[in-house]
Amino acid sequence: MRVLHAVVSSENRDTAREALEERDYSLIVIPLDDTDGVLLEVPLPSNAIGDAFDALEEEEIELEEYTVVTSGEAAMTPTSETLEQRYAGSYDPLTGVELRSKARDLSRDRGSYAALMILSALIATAGLLINSPAIVVGSMVIAPIVGPALTAGVGTVTGDRGMIGDSLWMQLYGLGLAIAASALLAAGFRFGGFVAPTLDLPALDLFGVRLSPNALSLVVGAAAGTAAGIGLTTKGPTSIIGVMISAALIPTAAASGIAVAWLEPNLAIGTAVLLVATLVVVNLAVLTVLVVLGYHRRERPSTGGETDWSWATVGAILAVCLVLTLIVGVATAQQTITDREVAQATDDAINDPAHDNLTVISIQTQYADMSPFTGPREVTVTVSETGDAAPDELATDIATEIEERTDESVAVRVHPQEYEYSSAGDATASEFEAAGSSSRSSLDTGFVPVTPR
Question: Is 113 exposed, middle or buried (0-12, 13-18, 19+ CB in 10 A)?
Fold first, then answer.
């Protein structure tokens, strides 16, 4: 429920009243003593605000003097039941004024924003190092990145250069703070003896999925940005959607910081490219939703005067973002193609009758040099093993297949997990569980580095 408060001149009072009553809106007219005008107070369903604005604008009634939309709990008017039935279940995006106001409400002061970004990064770092999904999820809940991620698109469609500049700057420096905080905490853990310095980062499940951009990670970013854009244009809260955007960004920023602390430039580059790619995709998805809904064609609200950001400054920031987008786009495209070739090569190798007792569980690729565009990559394949099997031979076969497909010499590591069948009388091949005592870890016979001969 919303309540529209609008001041109109005395000469337009009857015209405004008739325009609203034609659409079954009930209202009261309150005379104003200190001005030549009246105050219209109109209780409306949330989805009717846009129609009410249209009704007044069609009669050329100026709304810039004083118009306020407030929330209401309930309304009892002669037409309230009719209006509720008319607008129940309908989706009517927020007006341009409401959209900009809601986007501004998402913004935080820079002090609290920086503090929450640092704290969320510290929590995510701890969660990644101890491989705890619950802790990583906790870091997403408190991260305030959703505000800047949404306001860039709103500023673009409403022509507010101040909002664009603030949004882009807060996204960049917020994630930069997150990476720095993560690197400091991870370095403290490593050099303080709390975590083994020889820890194999790609072997951590939550870290291994964030080594580099891939098609699935971009789909997650695009879906999160699209959901955020749709949620922003509705009357509902965006807190839950903000968790999804944080899920796509904060753990990846923490992974970059951990890679820096472990002095692994190849991993740092891979995770940083994934972070930038996801950030770009989220912002583009939000902007796309707003453009599709036609906000760029609506009347743009006044920004209230000059802002602290000149068009030259905003243009420079946009140019930097464009360059980063092009670089990340090329790197992501090449990485995605390589990931597909690796997956197909692994599938071809595992289908060899010699590997009948092995089943692929997961495939992870990572950069093996300083360039995200060229150079060999390292591939880690986790497989389940039943009965007699030869995972070392599988590693060699996969490396050979990858070299034939990509013309690159790739180091392949196979991580076998041994399983045993249940002794139950009618157990089938799909009804077995892992024997913990016989599972192999990366500290004994796990990873087998192999390069093709």
Answer: buried
What's the CA gap between 374 and 394, in Å, rounded? Answer: 25
Q: Find the helix packing angle between 161-191 and 146-158, rounded to 10°.
A: 160
Alpha carbons within 13 A on the beta-carbon side of 277: 29
359 within 8 A of 367, measured Cβ to Cβ: no
State yes or no: pLDDT of 206 exceeds 70. yes
Would you tell me how many other CB atoms lie within 10 Å of the CB of residue 87?
16
Is residue 86 domain-shared with residue 107, that is, in the same domain? Answer: no
Closest by CA position to 286, among listed 139, 161, 145, 142: 145
What is the Cα 216 distance to its own chain's centre? 13
Highest mean pLDDT, choosing among 53-62, 250-259, 330-339, 400-409: 250-259
Range of the domain at 196: 99-309
Whether 238 and 103 map to the same domain: the answer is yes
Q: Do 203 and 218 share a domain, yes or no?
A: yes
Count CA atoms closer than 13 A to 158's CA, side-chain side.
Answer: 25
Give the number of other CB atoms < 10 A from CB of residue 245: 28
Bridge partners, 215 (sequence order): none
Are the C-beta atoms of residues 210 and 251 closer than 8 Å to each other?
yes
Residues 6+ apart with CB under 8 A from 157: 287, 290, 291, 295, 296
Question: Lowest-pLDDT range, 10-19, 229-238, 434-443?
Answer: 434-443
- Looking at the fold, whether 198 and 298 belong to one and the same domain comes out as yes
Say yes or no: 110 and 229 in one domain: yes
Contact residues for 236 (Cβ-Cβ < 8 A; gap 6+): none
Q: Which amino acid is at 367?
A: Y
Residue 238: the pLDDT is 65
Report the predicted TM-score, pTM, of the whole model to 2 decimal places.
0.66
SS3 label, residue 6: strand
Q: Is residue 114 part of a domain?
A: yes
Kindly state whether residues 301 and 382 are assigned to the same domain: no
